[in-house]
Amino acid sequence: MSKKIGILFGKERSFPEAFINRINEKNIKGISAEPVKIDKVMQGEPCGYAVIVDRISQDVPFYRAFLKNAAITGTAVVNNPFWWSADEKFFNNALATKIGVPVPKTVILPSRELPDDTTDESFSNLAYPLDWKGIFDYVGFPAYMKPFSGGGWKNVYRLESMEDFFEKHAETKQLVMLLQEEIVFDQYYRCYCIGRKDVRIMPYEPRNPHHLRYVASFKPSAKLLKEMKAIVLKINNYLGYEFNTVELAIRDGIPYAIDFCNPAPDADLKSVGEENFEWVVETAANYAIQLAKKSNKEIDNLSWGEYITRSAGEKPLI
Question: Which residues are registered as beta bridge partners of 155?
C-alpha cells in the first residue's frame, strides 16, 4: 500500500525541497514525499497523506484547521496541531519549573492596550495598578520583555530599569508580554530535537548578526553536552514536540532553558550552515519515513507529550 509524506510550508525553500528529495532518493517501496496539495477540505474526510510535516500553520489559521481534520482522519502530523494550538511560552516556563529544568524568572503581563471588543469593565478581576514593585523585585534589571507566544525575535526588548520598562511596554499595544530575568551567559546553544530522541547541539551566538549566529568560538565539555541533551529530551518529551529547538544559555556552568517553543524552527541552509542542514534533512527524513511505515489510518497517529498523558492518567509530573 502506497503512503505519501507531505510537507506544508510557506516562503522557505531549501529545507522543504531537500526533505522531499532526500525521502524520494531513498527509494523505499511504497513511500514517497511531495509538497502538500490542498484543493478542498471536507469535514471528516482524509487528505491522502500518511504523514504531514507542518512548517507554516502557526501563521495560517486555515492550515491549522486543515491539519486538525487530517489528524482526526489518521494522518500523523508533525507537530501535533492540537497541542501546538494550546501551547505558549509562559506555560512552557511554568512546566519547566515543575520538571526540574532551570529557567529565568518570568512573569506574564496583561496587554498595554485593551483587546478589541473589550472595555475597562472586562477587566474587573485585574488589580490596578499591578504589583509592579513585586514584579520588578522578582525579575530584576536588566531584563528582557518579549511576547508570550510566537517567535522570530520579534518585539523583543532589553530593559535597563523600571522607567525603561514603562516606556517600552507602551509600544507593545495589544501584545501579551513576558518580563524575564536576563541570564548573562558565557556559552549559548541552540539544540534541534527530532522524534523526541535525536538531538543536535549547536554553538550559537545570539549577539551576532543573524547570518553569523551559528559562528561561535565555544564548545561544550562532555559533561555539559550530556546534561544539555538530557534537558532537551526532557523538555520535548513532556511537551510532545517531534520537531523543535531548545535554546540553552550557560551561566555558572548551569544550562538555563531560554526559549523552547519553536515547533517550526529555522532550518534554512544559509542560516544554519551545511553540516547542521544535512543533519536536519537526514534526521527529519528518516523520522517521517518511520512514521509512515507504522501509520494506521484507522487510529490516532499523533504524538502526545508526557504532560498530557500523565494528566490523563492522573500521575504527578515528576
Answer: none
